[in-house]
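Ticket #4471: structure export looks truncated?
Reporter: QA, pipeline team
Priority: medium

Steps to reproduce: submit the single chain below to the structure queue and open the exported record.
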Amino acid sequence: MSDKSMNMSKTWLLLIVTAVFILLIFFFREDFSFVNALKDRGIVFLWLGGIAFFAEYIDSALGMGFGIIMFPMLLVSGFSPVEILSAILFAEFITGIAAGWGHQKAGNVDFKPETRAREVLKLLFITSILGSILGLILSSRLNVKGFAIYIGIIYIIIGFTTALSMNLFGKYNTTKLKLLGIVAGFNKGVSGSGFGPLLTGAQVEMKIPAKSAVAITSLTEGAFTFFAIIIYSIIKGMPVLSLIIPVTIGALCSIPLAVWTVADLPKKSHSRSIGIVMALLGILTLLKQLNVI
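Actual output as written to the record:
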């Protein structure tokens, strides 16, 4: 077995153990009965985990897609928007950190001190926090539907230019990165979207390797979401465990497969896939806001 395969096997094993540990924590809580959950809603439990597995695989392999896939699927499954948001935030926190670590272990990125990836991660994390605070402050003054249309258009433009290997953002520049982080955080603060695809697509266009861009976005979003969870808990209270558990476990178990996919994908094919998926997300966003779907 190669060193890479050995590392991936260890990563998979560790994440499965972590998932089981999380499950056991809630199993022994007095206010939660896993046995009853399986008895009463076993199929739902597996359904939620399966959706999360697929959505997180796409997200951890291409740097986008978890929220936009999970939200409508959970909505039609009978959960309220508040319950869905809490589950997505918690899962993104856990999986973002895990995916960043997995990509590092697989050699898709190098987060060691003094590396460019470390610099990009730090800049995007700090500026996205600032942008999200600004977005939360101004969100009540903005037209949410109009803002979603703007995000859809941005997705389409950057998606197509990335897929066609066009350079919309120019060369790597820390000032551009800071602005990118602020805009992505602002988008997230206003609408809850417009974060992952924008960060990933723009990094690729600035000639940051696609593998690194996906890893940086995953880890940035994981760390960023930690603060969002704190704010959510203060405002809305503790999230719903019966939804968080299957979503988080399903998403967590997909990460080794996603990391392995990124490690094996050719650079050009990976960049093109990111662009195509981003453009498709933009088109879907526009169609939804225009009431076509």
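Status: closed, not a bug. The export was complete when the record was re-opened. Leaving a note from the reviewer for reference: Confidence is low (pLDDT under 50) at residues 27-35.
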